[in-house]
Write a structure and sequence with these properties.
Structural class: alpha/beta
Number of helices: 12
Strand content: 15-25%
Shape: globular
Radius of gyration: 23 Å
């Protein structure tokens, strides 16, 4: 009898925790495990702003999936672009652009999310994101390049536009990105004798009326005060009306000469979710508390992909798509996959939120562990302690700790790698959101497979 085929889509917090638990708790003869991911590493997303600012090296937050002693999972280098639950087939586009059809008995959908964009003129062509390791590396190169070019320029208008930086999104990603990069450029000005520190302007804008409302009013105001004290101009209730290569127009009518627009205005579930043609909640699959998808045999969804009911809060609440939930959901869904293989009952997911941490660089931070509000060094200790402990391997922990100590002692550096130096890469170039099939295309594709007998 053939072994059951378990297919896990995505190597984020949820997907990797699921795979690791399956490897530990299933014997090699019980099931075949396959993982679909473009890169054979788990990316620790919360620390991307520190990669962009150069505090951490890229490889320190990219944890190799092949280091595990129990590693036996087959990894397909690519991205899932369609799922047909009726045919139990996942369509995958490999990194070579080759399409392959992967049959499964059980599929765990944890493809993560993509940057949320709007129909704003010029946005897709001129904004950069902060969602992938490549984007963080590119943004760092781009920001340092603006300093280099401004220092060399005799044109005051060009210099002004290169020294204006706009970050859109007042959530954790946007706030930490603006704070960390502002700290980088403020320190860099000492190395650029022809630049005036007063010319470097960072702007953080968000259409919401509050900064990071999840922190609560008091800590949100503390974070706002820290950013403004450091010279970051924060505009709330404002968004982008239009973007071009050398200016940004805001919805309040302001036109800002600017060559750097970083877009972090939220995320949405992967376009893969739409290919299942199933019920969704705010773009995420409406799953049961055990993370199984109603009406689809052998389908589980979690993390950014699944609207998992929050049994602690009750009512219609669903678990937020945060790292702490994704990691725990990954372990629980692995247990439920094993239970389904062994004809045992599935268990619901429950978790009490541990709180929030926001690292603003240096000694600045705000944190709310278990509801306790902290700021300054205590908050920074909690923030970095939480991130450090959440890293999956001792090698990653050693690299991150070493980077933090080295940066604290030696300071920043301003080296560009030349990554895509002459190519103004866009959001689409990094996240490939145009690669997915529609639900109809997936059904037609699998019907053609059945007709051909493959």
């Amino acid at each position: 009898m053939a072994r059951p085929r378990i297919l896990v889509v995505g190597a984020g917090f949820a997907g990797v925790e699921c795979v690791r638990r399956l490897e530990r708790r299933l014997s090699p003869g019980e099931a075949d495990i396959t993982l679909v991911t473009p890169f054979s590493y788990q990316l620790y997303l919360p620390l991307l702003p520190q990669v962009a600012s150069g505090v951490l090296t890229p490889q320190s937050i990219a944890v190799s999936l092949r280091r595990s002693r129990k590693h036996r999972t087959r990894i397909i280098p690519g991205g899932a672009i369609g799922v047909d639950p009726a045919a139990k087939v996942c369509v995958i586009r490999k990194i070579t652009d080759e399409l392959v059809d992967e049959p499964y008995d059980i599929i765990v959908l944890a493809p993560g999310s993509v940057t949320r964009t709007f129909d704003i003129p010029g946005l897709i062509d001129h904004a950069r994101g902060m969602k992938t390791l490549a984007e963080a590396a590119y943004v760092r190169d781009h920001v340092i390049a603006q300093l280099d070019l401004a220092d060399a320029s005799h044109d005051q208008e060009e210099r002004a536009s290169r020294l204006q930086f706009v970050v859109v999104g007042g959530g954790y990603a946007g706030t930490e990105t603006a704070a960390c990069l502002q700290r980088l450029t403020s320190h860099a000005v000492r190395r650029y004798p022809r630049l005036d520190a007063r010319q470097i302007k960072w702007h953080l804008i968000d259409i919401a009326p509050k900064l990071m409302p999840e922190l609560g009013d008091r800590l949100g105001l503390v974070a706002l005060e820290i950013l403004r004290r450091r010279g970051i101009e924060v505009s709330l209730g404002v968004s982008v009306a239009e973007a071009s290569a050398d200016k940004v127009t805001f919805t309040d009518g302001r036109v800002l000469p600017c060559r750097t627009l970083i877009w972090t205005a939220g995320v949405v579930a992967s376009p893969l979710i739409a290919t299942l043609d199933a019920e969704t909640v705010r773009g995420r699959l409406a799953v049961r508390a055990d993370m199984s998808l109603p009406g689809a045999d052998g389908v589980f969804a979690l993390g950014d992909a699944g609207a998992v009911p929050d049994l602690i809060k009750g009512g219609d609440a669903v678990c937020p798509p945060t790292a702490q939930h994704a990691m725990r959901q990954g372990r629980k869904v692995a247990d439920n996959v094993i239970a389904s293989l062994r004809d045992q009952p599935l268990q619901p997911y429950e978790h009490q939120d541990l709180g929030l941490v926001v690292d603003l660089g240096g000694r600045d931070a705000v944190s709310k562990p278990l509801g306790v509000e902290l700021r300054g060094l205590p908050a920074q200790a909690v923030a970095r302690g939480y991130h450090w402990s959440a890293l999956r391997t001792n090698v990653a922990k050693a690299r991150v700790l070493t980077n933090w100590v080295l940066n604290a002692v030696a300071g920043d550096d301003y080296v560009r790698t030349g990554f895509l130096a002459r190519n103004p890469a866009t959001l689409r170039d990094f996240e490939h959101t145009d690669a997915y099939l529609s639900a109809e295309q997936v059904r037609a594709h699998t019907a053609a497979l059945r007709a051909s007998g493959t």
